[in-house]
Design a protein that fits this description.
The complex is a heterotrimer of chains A (about 325), B (about 270) and C (about 675).
Chain A lengths: L1 H29 L5 H6 L5 H10 L6 H13 L13 H36 L4 H15 L2 H15 L20 H30 L2 H8 L4 H39 L4 H10 L3 H29 L1 H4 L1
Helix pairs in contact in A: 1-12, 5-6, 5-8, 5-10, 6-8, 7-8, 7-10, 8-10, 9-10, 10-11, 10-12, 11-12
Chain B lengths: L5 H22 L31 H37 L1 H15 L3 H12 L3 H28 L2 H9 L3 H37 L11 H8 L8 H28 L9
Helix pairs in contact in B: 1-2, 1-9, 2-3, 2-5, 2-7, 2-9, 3-5, 4-5, 5-7, 6-7, 7-8, 7-9, 8-9
Chain C lengths: L3 E10 L2 E11 L4 E5 L6 H8 L6 E3 L2 E4 L2 E2 L5 H7 L4 E4 L3 H4 L6 H12 L4 H14 L5 H4 L9 H13 L5 E5 L7 H18 L2 E6 L2 H7 L2 E6 L2 E7 H6 L4 H9 L6 E2 L2 E2 L39 E4 L2 E3 L30 E12 L10 E13 L4 E5 L6 H9 L6 E6 L2 E2 L9 H6 E4 L3 H4 L6 H13 L3 H14 L16 H14 L4 E5 L7 H18 L2 E6 L2 H7 L2 E6 L2 E6 L1 H5 L5 H9 L34 H5 L12 E2 L5 H9 L2
Parallel strand pairs in C: 3-9, 3-10, 7-8, 8-9, 18-23, 18-24, 21-22, 22-23
Antiparallel strand pairs in C: 1-2, 1-4, 1-5, 5-6, 10-11, 11-15, 12-13, 14-15, 16-17, 16-19, 19-20, 24-25, 25-26
Helix pairs in contact in C: 4-5, 4-7, 5-7, 15-16, 15-17, 16-17, 17-18
Classes of the chains: A mainly alpha (about 325), B mainly alpha (about 270), C alpha/beta (about 675).
């Protein structure tokens, strides 16, 4: 009852947030001092060209009217035309999105269980060798930008020891799972970055849980150590961690920009960087919005899961 | 992270940072921008400690000259983000109700953009300029700092010393500035150190994507981007700037970790 | 064979020598009470026996049923914990795992130690729940901790502890967080289980009366040393150690009060010594009224009579001289027409949750309903009630921290704005607040001087010199010195912090001070000093108090008028003599009966959580004197009688008196 109420509330809030997201996206592109037409044409455009472009893009219309027609078109699935290719944005965007989703899903499937495992080990052995090794590794992995890790892996695994492809170049329409070897390094880069952060979150959660009074009760009942950890501490620690994983979803989404560029993987991140390079503002705008929606939905799912798993809210 | 030597490491790093910021360019043995095609793509040796790039520029000098802009930009972005976030968090956390709800939904919306993507979008729209990068990163950090400060303030606002101030009839600016802010200060300092680390990573990533800086500026990310094509024949072009980013980030991280531990108030004895 | 044998136990947390050379032995079936204030080390002793401490434990012998506990490794400890020695905790809510059904949490102990099958363990758990008098045990077993009341949670913890019929039960303040009526029934349950199980009990408490209710023998712990030990009768009724004598003298008692004059309570001066550098000699010397030269040498715990030992050089201790009564109080008040504060028809309801059609309906909690009270100048009105009675909400409405839904608050006959920030400066100044928890009532980043100076700057806008002089004056008035002025709150003890809070309140020269449970976070000996302080300041400045408390003895000590609240309504209102003697409201009667007494008696009357009923008298679901349908349908009148005594009950006063006379 209470859980349903909470989840419905979250859904409502998501709608509010998505509305603000659309306003912000529109605002950043249209209201910030920079001008779209200027940004598209760069320093090379003559004032006449800029003016012509402004008119053809409807930039001379009032702001509110522009937002209205933009959002109405979006809600009908019309994301506009790419300036670079002269094609509708929607089909290429969703193909790319699917490719990125594959990358992200595999990363989550690997990184989440491993980081929970590492976090539990580090948290239970707080301050001892296992903890120091795991936490030390986490600090280093956390401090390395994705491209540094990526280039390092390419250098080692495809240049010095040519075991894996250093590039995932493919046709945007192709199924990325058809060549699993090309996925290994991109997933490794994303997973390492996520591991670094998530394992520290689970570690902190585990330390808190192990210091709680109910864990003390479990220990003083004479339960064996593994029962205390797995049955009493872990479930309590997982609840807040699930929401945290939801927020981390954003990290994966941000990480794919770099990783897809580095490995030439045909996902939404690469598309975005490419669009930025070619000043294809409508594509950038659409891609950013889609990514924000994906983040919001991912977050909602994580929140819903943690609400449903919590007996306090379930009953 | 309870490494004994991290105190020393953090201290040493701070000194290194100061030296690099103050003296960096003047320590460089060669010009970071001038071409010298005769000495192109030399591997590391005693003259060119980190080797040279395809235009014969000394990688060591370029890495050294990259330190000052990287660090200044990181600090400026962190300050921008933390100031915006602290103000928002204080007001939202103390006011509660509709004000809190409205501010936090805006922060949620900002959080919905992955950091790098938001920064990218803002810089692209505003134009490539360090000031714009600072502004963009500030906006990226804003909601994250605001959420942290708000969570601390919400907790503090329930405490009786805040009720005491309210029951005296104190005005809200007094409560925010004199009652709440001192109690949030340590969290802000720790958050600031963390944001500095993020700023180094994010600005390096932006530069790697070619956003916000233009060649021949010796930005580390840009050096990696340009050196990437020579990865097989001249890996030093990539390795040394990568190392610079990594070490700087790890260093700020350690300083932050050190701050985090000193932030804990001296332990009060347990009543056992 | 003794069940528990502790010989020469010392525990150190780093440099802090929390427990030093404590020896206790507990015979089979015996209940031993370990009494101490905060910082005495009593909980440390309990956890040292469980071997669950991050500290250095040393002892000549620490043995359970003859088995050396100190020699055991983790595996051996895991075998005896829960089976031979089990524990009941202070806070049952946090001691239970929120993610597991309570039945499972009990059953797993049985599966582990008794090797029962899942079904057998579950069945046994239901039997245990029956034994601890949980209603509908089979259904409760399937619930989660948050679905149970505090009393029910503690019953679950007790069931868990007795599941394997341990030889030793350690109870660490098992009733401290509970309401007085719940405390009484839990104590009754503990006595009943003792009689039927024959387990030994190590009972840790700060409350002497609670210990008197449960234990055969008692030890008094002070600053990590056992200072007195004997039978309950010996220690609590013929104490031999000055500390024990002081503790007993610090408890407020109705007989200390004659008419409207108060005898001061006897506080123990000073504070605990720093256990990082344990001073030589008797540990209590600095605070002892009898200290003399010989006390420079530490006394040993020696038997003065059979079974009664005390660590004091004095064999016979003369009685303490009586404390002087407080100077006659302002004799104005009663005749004065306009009360200082008048509350009329005040209601505050909270809405919880949001209404979503077909999914959820917002709930309304009636925190305070139609409360009418007044306080004459220079007098104290005490509002007494259990948690959830609405007394704190009432205080916050008067202070303007919450805005009431209905009703008015009048100060000297003038209505006040609801919210404090809409009130006039002078009205803000006139009403000051002292909070329950001095730990969180002071901003940790402000010095004592800054804290006390703030009201002066805010209301009087005094200049630097005047402010400094006035701060010094106020510090002196609350018995703190100039040396405290520059300190931060964390450098002060709990009692000192509360004195700073009092000084801050009086810095505003208020005409009304709201005291919200001002001593409930403090030790008994400190409570006495703070209550004395409040009484003195009232005599000096003629301030009125709205005094919120759950502690009937404290209320009886300070109050000129008492309002008893239950479920947001005032059920009884009158002078202490009227309220605390028959005829009184059946709820007041039950409250009074539930208070544990030093003579070892308490008469539990009420069980189960009280929820506000839909209609009728708020107390009817739990009332032992319920008349019948009228109580369920009609709200009793709360009009005062000719002696200004409000007794909101359908039973006529004469009948009530007769009913209450028969036991």
């Amino acid at each position: 009852m209470k859980a349903l109420q909470l989840i419905l509330r979250r859904c409502g809030l998501l709608l509010v947030v998505l509305f603000i997201v659309s306003v912000l996206t529109f605002g950043i592109v249209n209201v910030l001092p920079g001008d779209v037409a200027n940004a598209i044409l760069g320093d090379l455009g003559t004032p006449q060209q800029v003016e012509a472009l402004r008119r053809s893009m409807g930039l001379d219309l009032p702001l509110l009217q522009r937002y209205e027609s933009w959002i109405v078109a979006l809600l009908h699935g019309d994301f506009g035309q790419s300036l670079q290719f002269g094609l509708p944005i929607a089909p290429m965007l969703f193909g790319r999105l699917a490719n990125s989703a594959v990358l992200g899903a595999i990363t989550l499937l690997i990184a989440v269980p491993v980081s929970v495992l590492l976090g539990v080990i580090a948290g239970v052995h707080e301050g001892r060798l296992a903890d120091r090794v795991i936490s030390g590794f986490a600090v280093v992995a956390f401090s390395l930008p994705e491209y540094v890790i990526g280039l390092l892996l390419i250098l080692v695994f495809s240049i010095w020891f040519p075991l894996l492809p250093g590039s995932s170049l493919m046709d945007p329409g192709a199924n990325p799972l058809a060549r699993p070897a090309t996925l290994v390094l991109p997933v490794a880069v994303l997973a390492l970055g996520m591991l670094a952060y998530l394992s520290q979150i689970t570690r902190a959660g585990m330390i808190t849980a192990m210091q709680s009074a109910y864990v003390r009760t479990a220990v003083l009942k004479g339960l064996p150590g593994w029962v205390v950890v797995l049955k009493h501490a872990l479930p309590n620690m997982l609840l807040p961690t699930i929401s945290e994983i939801g927020m981390n979803f954003g990290y994966v989404l941000g990480g794919i920009v770099i990783v897809e560029t580095l490995f030439s993987y045909a996902g939404i991140g690469q598309m975005m960087v490419n669009a930025v390079d070619h000043r294809d503002i409508p594509v950038v705008e659409a891609a950013v919005l889609v990514v924000a929606v994906a983040y919001g939905v991912g977050n909602l799912l994580a929140d819903a899961a943690s609400i449903l798993l919590n007996p306090r809210l379930r009953s | 992270m309870r490494i004994q030597w991290d105190n020393a490491a953090a201290g040493g790093f701070l000194i290194l940072v100061l030296v690099a910021i103050l003296l960096g360019p003047s320590l460089a043995p060669f010009s970071p921008v001038e071409f010298d095609p005769v000495h192109a793509l030399l591997p590391p040796n005693f003259t060119y400690l980190f080797g040279t790039d395809e235009f014969g520029r000394d990688v060591f000098s370029r890495v050294l000259c990259g330190a000052r802009p990287t660090l200044l930009l990181a600090l400026a972005s962190a300050i921008t983000g933390v100031v915006l976030g602290t103000t928002t968090g204080l007001v939202a956390g103390y006011a509660g109700g509709v004000v809190d709800e409205a501010l936090m939904r805006i922060m949620d919306a900002l959080m919905s953009f992955p950091a790098l993507i938001l920064a990218m979008l803002v810089v692209v729209m505003l134009g490539a300029d360090p000031v714009n990068v600072v502004f963009a990163l500030g906006i990226v950090f804003w909601p994250r700092s605001a959420r942290l400060v708000r969570s601390v303030v919400v907790d503090l606002a329930r405490r009786e010393f805040i009720e005491a101030a309210r029951s005296r009839g104190e005005a809200w600016p007094y409560i925010l500035a004199r009652e709440l802010l001192p109690n949030v200060r340590m969290f802000i300092v720790v958050d600031f150190s963390l944001r500095t680390t993020y700023a180094i990573l994010l600005s390096a990533s932006l530069a790697y994507l070619g956003i916000g800086v233009a060649p021949p500026t010796p930005a580390w990310g840009l050096m990696v981007r340009d050196g990437q094509q020579f990865l097989e024949i001249a890996p030093w072009l990539v390795i040394f700037p990568c190392l610079a980013v990594a070490l700087t980030a790890i260093g700020t991280m350690l300083v932050g970790e050190r701050l985090r531990r000193s932030a804990a108030l001296p332990g009060t004895e347990r009543s056992r | 064979m003794t069940t528990l044998e502790i010989d020469g136990l010392s525990v150190a947390y780093g440099a802090v020598r929390a427990v030093r050379d404590v020896s206790i032995s507990i015979a089979p079936g015996e209940a031993y009470g370990l009494i101490g204030e905060s910082g005495s080390g009593k909980t440390t002793v309990a956890y040292a026996v469980m071997r669950h401490l991050q500290a250095d434990i040393t002892a000549r012998r620490l043995a359970l049923r003859g088995e050396d506990l100190l020699a055991m490794d983790d595996r051996a400890l895991a075998r005896i914990r829960g089976r031979h020695v089990a524990m009941v905790y202070q806070d049952p809510m946090s001691a239970l795992n929120p993610m597991l059904r309570v039945g499972e949490q009990v059953a797993e102990v049985l599966r582990r130690h008794r090797k029962l099958s899942a079904a057998a363990a579950w069945a046994r758990c239901v039997t245990l729940f029956e034994q601890v008098h949980l209603p509908d045990p089979a259904r409760i077993a399937r619930r989660y901790p948050h679905q149970l009341s505090g009393g029910q949670q503690q019953r679950v913890v007790i069931a868990m502890a007795i599941a394997c019929e341990p030889d030793l039960l350690i109870m660490d303040e098992p009733t401290t967080g509970l309401d007085v009526t719940t405390e009484a029934v839990i104590l009754e349950l503990i006595r009943e289980l003792r009689a039927s199980m024959g387990a030994s009990v190590l009972f840790i408490s700060h409350n002497l009366a609670v210990v008197a209710n449960v234990c055969d023998r008692v030890g008094v712990l002070y600053a990590g040393k056992l200072v007195e030990q004997g039978t309950t009768q010996q220690v609590l009724h013929a104490p031999r150690h000055p500390y024990t004598i002081g503790l007993l003298a610090a408890i407020p008692r109705p007989e200390l009060r004659v008419g409207s004059a108060h005898t001061r309570l006897r506080a123990i001066p000073g504070a605990l010594p720093d256990l990082r550098q344990v001073p030589p000699g008797c540990i209590f010397r600095d605070r002892c009224a009898y200290a003399f030269d010989a006390c420079a040498v530490a006394p040993t715990l020696t038997e003065a009579e059979s079974g009664h030992a005390s660590a004091c050089h004095l064999r016979d201790i003369p009685p303490l001289p009586p404390e002087p009564a407080v100077a006659a109080r302002m004799a104005t008040a009663d005749t004065q027409v306009t009360p200082r504060l008048a509350v009329s028809g005040l209601s505050k309801w909270f809405r919880e949750g949001v209404s979503i059609p077909f999914v959820a309906r917002a709930r309304t909690t009636r925190a305070v309903t139609e409360v009418t009270l007044d306080i004459p100048a220079g007098k104290t009105l005490a509002v007494v009630g259990e948690s959830g009675s609405g007394k704190s909400t009432l205080a916050r409405c008067v202070a303007g921290l919450l805005t009431p839904g209905h009703g008015r608050v009048l100060l000297d006959g003038r209505p006040l704005a609801n919210a404090v920030n809409h009130r006039r400066r002078a009205d803000q100044q006139a009403i000051q607040f002292i909070f329950q928890n001095p730990e969180s009532a002071l901003n940790p980043h402000h010095t004592v001087a800054e804290i006390i100076a703030r009201p002066l700057r805010l209301y009087a806008r005094t200049d630097g010199t005047t402010t400094r002089a006035r701060v010094a004056e106020l510090l002196d008035a609350v018995k703190l010195g100039e040396r405290h002025a520059g300190r931060y709150p964390r450098e002060l003890s709990g009692g000192e912090k509360q004195r700073v809070c009092i000084a801050r309140a009086f810095a505003a020269s208020p005409s009304l001070v709201i005291c919200d449970e001002p001593t409930s976070a403090l030790d008994i000996s400190v409570q006495a000093a703070i209550l004395n302080e409040l009484v003195d300041l009232q005599a000096r400045y003629g301030t009125s108090y709205l005094f919120i408390s759950h502690d009937l003895a404290v209320v009886q000590h300070v109050a000129d008028r008492v309002a008893v609240m239950y479920q947001g309504r005032v059920v009884e209102y009158g002078t202490p003599d009227q309220v605390f003697a028959s005829p009184n409201h059946p709820y007041t009667e039950a409250l009074l009966a539930a208070v544990p007494r030093l003579d070892g008696t308490s008469r539990p009357r009420l069980d189960g959580p009280g929820a506000a009923p839909e209609s009728g008298c708020v107390f009817h679901p739990r009332c032992l004197r319920k008349l019948g349908e009228v109580c369920e349908t009609t709200l009793p009148s709360d009009a005062p009688d000719d002696t200004a005594h409000v007794l909101a009950c359908h039973i006529p006063q004469r009948d009530l008196r007769d009913l209450q006379r028969t036991p």
